[in-house]
Structure formats: structure tokens, C-alpha cells
Amino acid sequence: MIANLVQLATESEQNPLMPPGPELLVGTIAFAIVFFFFWKKLLPNINKVLEERRAAIEGGIEEADAMKTEAQSVLEQYKAQLAEARHEAARLRQEAQEQGATLIAEMRAEGQRQREEIIAAGHTQIEADRKAAASALRQDVGKLATDLAGKLVGESLEDHARQSRTIDRFLDELEEKAEAAR
Amino acid sequence: MSDNGCGFPAPGLHSFLFKPIATVGGFEFNKVMLLALITTGLVITFFTLAFGKAKVVPGKLQMVGEAGYDFVRRGIVYETLGKKEGEKYVPLMVSLFFFIWIMNIWSVIPLAQFPVSSIIAFPAVLAAIVYVTWVSLTFKRHGFVGFFKNITGYDKSLGPVLPLVMVIEFFSNLLVRPFTHAVRLFANMFAGHLMLVMFTVASWYLLNSWMIPAAGVSFVMTIAMIGFELFVQAVQAYVFVLLACTYIQGALAEHH
């Protein structure tokens, strides 16, 4: 192609590969105007807008990211609080159980003590009554025996018996015998 | 050209000559220059409408403009030079792409019907701008010795072939490269225009008696060629800018 053109060019007077001067000048001017418009005005203009658009998109993404991070942190905070609350509840339950157990044990001990006290009091009372009864009985039996003996003998042995304490001794002997037999 | 006996007005170099439509103090102003200036007007008008009052939420026109801008910026410049190094060259590449593309499209616009870039002066100017850009960049980056190492593809591991490679690379890079850069665009548009003129003229010329079916074929070819040219116009604009980026990439590259 090029060789043909060159041949063609050399054959004729008009050489299509020889740039004519006026066209060179016009071409330079025409392109220079386009270039300067693009360079100085149009491209800075559009680049600014493209940059703004990019910033807007990135800003949106960043905002979303920030919100996501915040939501995450809040969630974690809630989770931590929840865990803490659970822990606290478990601790309180444990404590209540322990306290309850202590209380029951204490009350049981108290009950036991009161029961024992009551029993002891009862025993004492019974013992005292028995003793009183025994001594009353002894006096009554002694009196009856003395009365009976007096009636039988015909004379009062009261003074004598009181002095000699024969009756008491007799009764003691009886008791001892009963003790021994048991 | 047209003296082949049958009177067929075959297109040729004369198709690329225009009589001046105005002469201002010895300066002959012709149709191609007018188209070049209209190109400038169109590109600036469109992008001013699209980007003049650019909004964060774009309108339809701004969306189209952004798509075109992004295609060059991301699709070509960032791809070859990277975002960091490439940013500086985005204005140049964007203006190159749209300027060339619109210059090419004139080829199929009714009334204009001439690709401005098929006049070598226009591709030459643009290629020269790219050439100056990457050559001065190479000097700035690598210094005087580094410049020659970069240009000649200096690589010790080549051994005895090194001098030969260096000579070839020197010519290829420094002398042939700007020429091919300009001519690639020029020749594509030149050939495309010839083809279009060929089939258009033929469909008219063949439109008599028994030749009419042939005229039909020629007409269909014209339509097909218009579609094909639209594709080539965009591709050539893309290739021109891609090559410009590649040259700058070569200038930035650390030689090893």
C-alpha cells in the first residue's frame, strides 16, 4: 500500500504523502483548540463530578459500614449485659438456695432444741410430781398404817411412831426391795 | 486518468484536490479545512453540552459523553499506562480520539463525503504531536544515554547481534515510527474514500440499458462499504490513540 502510494506519488505531480502547508496549519489549530478545551475546561469539569460521584458512593458505603460496626458493638454490648444478668441471676439463685438450706438447718436445730427443752421440762415436771406424789403417798400410807395400827392396837401410836420413825424405815425397806427386784 | 476510452470518471488523486472556496490574503481556504474546523466545533460543542454543566446524577447527554470519555480513559490509557502514569495523558488521548473519529466520519456524511484524515497533513500533525510527546518524555525520564539505550533496545544479552538490533531499532523507532503512525490512518481513510467514490460513481455510470444489474451490485456495494467504513473509521481512531499510548509506555519503561 505504502509502496504503491509512493510510486503513485513519484509518477504524478501531486504527492499525497507530501503534506501541504496550509492544511498543516489548519490541522494544528483545529486540534489545538480541541485539546485545550478538553485539557483546561471539559475534563477537569467532568473529573470533578466523577470524583464527587465516587465520593458520594464511597461515603454511602462508609456510612453503612459505620452503622454496621455500631450495630455490631451494640449487639455485643447487649450480649455481654445479658450474660452478666444471667450470671447474676444464677448467683442469686445459688445464694438463695444456700440461705434457704441454712435457714432450714437452723430451724430444724431450733426445733430440735425446743423439743428437747420441752421433753426435759416434762421429765422434770413428771419427776417432781412423782416425788411429790411419792412423799404424799408415803405420809398418807404412814398415817393410814399408823391409824390402822392404832385402831388395831387400841392406842395411839402416833407420837411413838413419829419418834421412832419405824414406819419410814419400813417403807424404805419396801422401796429398796422393789428396786432390787426390778 | 479518465482517458481510458469509455469515459468512466475513475476516482484518483484528483479526488483529493479541492478548489479553494475562499482566499484570504493569499491563503486558500478549501473544503477540507472547513471540515476540520467544523470537526473542532462539533467535538467542543458536544462535550460542552455533555460536560459543561456536569451533574453527579448524569443526564442522557452527559451519560453518552461519559461513556466515550471512559472508553478512552479506562479502555486505552489506563490499560496501557496505568492510572498513575496515564492520568497526565488522558486529555491528549481523549482529544486525539474524538478529533480523529469525527474527521474520519465525514467520509460518509452526505454533502461532506470526505474524510479529513485522508489528507496527510492532518494525520501528520497529530502524529508529530505524539512523536514530540514521547521523544521528549524519553529524554526526561532516561537522560541522554538512557534515551539512546531506550530507543535502540539496548540489551547486552543479545551478544554479537546487538549492533545490528540497535541500528534496526533506532531506525524503526525514531524514524519510521512517526511515519507509519501517520500513514496508517491516512492510508486507511484514503483507500476507504477511493472505494466509496469508486462504487458510488460506478453505480451512476452503469445505470444504462443492460448494465443496470451491475449498477445494482455497485449500489449494494456502496451501502456495504459505508457500513464497513463506519467500522474502519472508529477502529483507526482507536488504533491511532492506542499506538500513541504504547509509544508513551515505551518511553516510560525502565530498560533492563
Identify the notable features of this structure and list them briefly.
heterodimer; A: 182 residues; mainly alpha; 4 helices; rod-shaped; B: 256 residues; two-stranded antiparallel ribbon; 6 helices; 71% helix
Describe this structure in words.
- Chain A: One of its GO terms (cellular component) is proton-transporting ATP synthase complex.
- Chain A: It is a single-pass membrane protein.
- Chain A: This is ATP synthase subunit b.
- Chain A: It is found in: Cell membrane.
- Chain A: It comes from Streptomyces flaveus.
- The complex is a heterodimer of chains A (182) and B (256).
- Chain A has 182 residues and is an all-alpha fold.
- Chain A has helices at residues 2-11, 21-153, 158-164, 166-181.
- Chain A starts with a helix and ends with a helix.
- In chain A, 7% of the residues are buried.
- In chain B, helix 2 crosses helix 6.
- With 256 residues, chain B is mainly alpha-helical.
- Chain B has one domain.
- Chain B has helices spanning 31-51, 60-86, 90-105, 121-152, 162-205, 212-252, and strands at residues 22-24, 27-29.
- Chain B starts with 21 loop residues before the first strand and ends with a helix.
- The longest helix of chain B has 44 residues, at 162-205.
Number of helices of chain A: 4
Percentage of residues assigned to helices of chain A: over 70%
Poorly predicted tracts of residues of chain B? none
- C-alpha termini separation of chain B: 54 Å
**Counted beta strands of chain A:** 0
The radius of gyration over CA of chain B amounts to 22 Å
Kindly state the percentage of residues in helix of chain B.
over 70%
Short description:
The complex is a heterodimer of chains A (182) and B (256). With 182 residues, chain A is an all-alpha fold.
